[in-house]
């Protein structure tokens, strides 16, 4: 049983069902319409630090694999371009190149003033987060997964020996030998009555949507002012802090942006573990309970879902998840 049908829960359900497990996927709302819908959805695979470094490094490969398995997966391989004004160029990490202003202008031809240097990550991209979630769930259904939207889970059930035996819902109990909590920040709330402390809290993230000319932005652009990308011929989205400042920064950065107009601002409570790294794995003192909660869920979901399925279905201990366990706290 997977509790939470965001992108992480959908990935776990798909990969576990594909590996032969009998899977039930539950969500308090509609799949992908919680935290996932407000994600900037950048596949940032070139961030190589922390316990999830290996998982991030393979994110592009995992999405390529998933594209082959699930035709029509809504992924855009645009590359990403990052820079900071007034700073020296850093060393390139694997998957990155340091380019000059002339090269940056070939990737983003509408730049008013190309930066002295930029980090070009050609293999990175972005996704339609709800579309990816829906495609994963469709794939899970094809492998027999039972999907129950709009069904809030109120408690996790245990037997007298302390082993997980299912969940409690408003309509009554539902039996399951293993429960995967992939419910974002609500994971901590559901685990607490079991005596399991999951150090994850909601962290507000603001996503702005703008009306914009077609082709204004070509890549995923990351600066000190915003993360920015074009999601439709007449739409931009930005992850940033303040709408008017962001709008001003877009207009000062790109030629032809005078007509850019703010359409909406939404704040999403993304789940943030205490150390910023994923919490993934079984809970030793609560047999049958498995945790899957993380930041950078869009980047990590395909790979983490595949590895979780291997642990649950094949009984393996995956080395890439070794530093993500709850017992590190």
Automatic annotation (TrEMBL):
Pfam families named in the record: DAO
Instruction: Write out the GO MF terms.
Output: oxidoreductase activity
Q: Which residues form the FAD dependent oxidoreductase domain?
A: 2-310
Q: Which UniProt keywords apply?
A: Oxidoreductase
EC number of this enzyme: 1.-.-.-
* Keyword set includes Ribosomal protein: no
Q: Which SUPFAM superfamilies is this protein grouped with?
A: FAD/NAD(P)-binding domain (SSF51905)
PANTHER family on file: GLYCINE OXIDASE, SARCOSINE DEHYDROGENASE-RELATED
Q: What is this protein called?
A: NAD(P)/FAD-dependent oxidoreductase
């Amino acid at each position: 049983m997977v509790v939470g049908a965001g992108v992480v829960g959908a990935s776990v359900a798909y990969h576990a069902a594909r590996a032969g497990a009998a899977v039930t996927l539950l969500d308090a709302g509609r799949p992908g319409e919680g935290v996932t819908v407000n994600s900037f959805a950048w596949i940032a695979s070139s961030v190589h630090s922390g316990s999830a470094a290996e998982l991030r490094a393979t994110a592009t490969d995992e999405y390529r694999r998933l594209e082959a398995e699930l035709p029509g997966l809504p992924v855009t391989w645009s590359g990403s371009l990052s820079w900071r004004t007034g700073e020296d160029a850093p060393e390139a990490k694997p998957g990155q190149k340091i380019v000059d202003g002339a090269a940056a202008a070939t990737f983003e031809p509408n730049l008013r003033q190309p930066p002295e240097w930029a980090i070009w990550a050609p293999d990175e991209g972005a996704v339609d987060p709800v579309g990816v979630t829906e495609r994963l769930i469709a794939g899970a259904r094809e492998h027999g997964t039972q999907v129950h939207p709009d069904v809030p889970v109120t408690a996790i059930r245990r037997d007298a020996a302390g082993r997980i035996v299912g969940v409690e819902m408003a309509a009554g109990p539902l039996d399951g030998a293993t429960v995967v909590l992939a419910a974002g920040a609500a994971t901590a709330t559901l685990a607490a009555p079991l005596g399991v402390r999951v150090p994850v809290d909601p962290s507000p993230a603001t996503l702005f949507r703008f009306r914009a000319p077609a082709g204004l932005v070509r890549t995923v652009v990351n600066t000190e002012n915003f993360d920015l990308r074009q999601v439709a011929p007449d739409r931009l989205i930005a992850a940033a802090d303040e709408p008017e400042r962001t709008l001003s920064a877009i207009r000062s950065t790109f030629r032809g942006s005078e007509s850019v107009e703010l359409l909406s601002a939404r704040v999403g409570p993304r789940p943030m573990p205490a150390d910023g790294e994923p919490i993934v794995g079984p809970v030793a003192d609560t047999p049958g309970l498995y945790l899957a909660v993380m930041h950078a869920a869009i980047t990590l979901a395909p790979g983490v879902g595949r590895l979780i399925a291997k642990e649950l279905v094949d009984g393996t201990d995956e080395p890439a998840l070794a530093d993500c366990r709850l017992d590190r706290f």
